[in-house]
């Protein structure tokens, strides 16, 4: 029992707590942005990020993986919120959780063995590029006059992130970046776009609720198409994120437990007034690169997020978005599988084709799940045609 607790929870105490706090800081603006995409109150996404992270830290199959409200899931629920309202969104989230739990019981996670290394490489490359592109609006938001202050903060942030570890690794450099640049920007009175400009932070705790919808077949017919789609996309993104962490940490995770854990997390989230969520590869990379290794880091991210927005919201609102842009650029550069690009000439043609196809479809559609499906499908087609290499070692 002691060995299990040490391995899963308390074997990396200081680094896990600090890494979780870094993730909590980065989750605030993303959650606010995702609430705007879904057309819901900011607290719906913030509560979701809290309940998802805390629940998955206990029930999930991949320690150190972060689950929260995501952009991919937010896009899928826009029509439901617009046409039927918030209560139906909560009901759909609960059903999403039930479907995902059933998928775990049916061992759907075993299908991850069909996702080959080139598919993972294409997925990571596309995601890294998308994260980089998503930071561009922050540079020209305030026009040409605001470009230079933002650029200065971003460059300073990147220097801190990459140079501070040479002094000490006791504190994660992304945390130093966020805290130090927030203090500097406030002290100098810099006119910057800040977290508080995105949306209002809640000042109360989430509470248990039963969605106020008719519990009948008509309601089921409304929410089932949304829930089925969210369950599929959520599981695919979560399982891919788990696979990436497996590679980063040279460990294996229980994909079927992760399916069940995602289901439990979404069910709990729906019962506490949150939108459905899934694994977040960007925040997970921040966690792992900041030293997070066990379930405690994920738990800390969720609890830290709640404490920050409810009790220290006025301070969290002062964080300059440019500091978070620096962190996300680090995430993007870390996420891209540079070896898969550098080694293309040495790889068999089939592997390169699968990687480029997966990457291209994800970039063209901004749909990570569709890119993975296309990559896996192409892998099977190439195998049937006898084209070499789609199962090799990860680049």
From TrEMBL:
Q: Which Pfam families match?
A: Sulfate_transp (PF00916)
Alphabetically ordered keywords of this record:
Membrane, Transmembrane, Transmembrane helix
Key word Transmembrane helix present in the record? Answer: yes
- Transmembrane segments in this chain: where? 45-76, 88-108, 114-134, 146-164, 170-190, 264-286, 292-311, 318-339, 359-382
Q: Where in the cell is it found?
A: Membrane
Its primary localisation, in coarse terms, equals membrane
Tell me the ranges covered by the SLC26A/SulP transporter domain, including all copies.
Answer: 13-142, 161-356
One Gene Ontology cellular component annotation held by this UniProt entry: membrane
Report the InterPro entries cross-referenced here. Answer: Membrane-Transporter-like, SLC26A/SulP_dom
Q: What topology does it adopt in the membrane? A: Multi-pass membrane protein
**How is this protein named in the record?**
Sodium-independent anion transporter
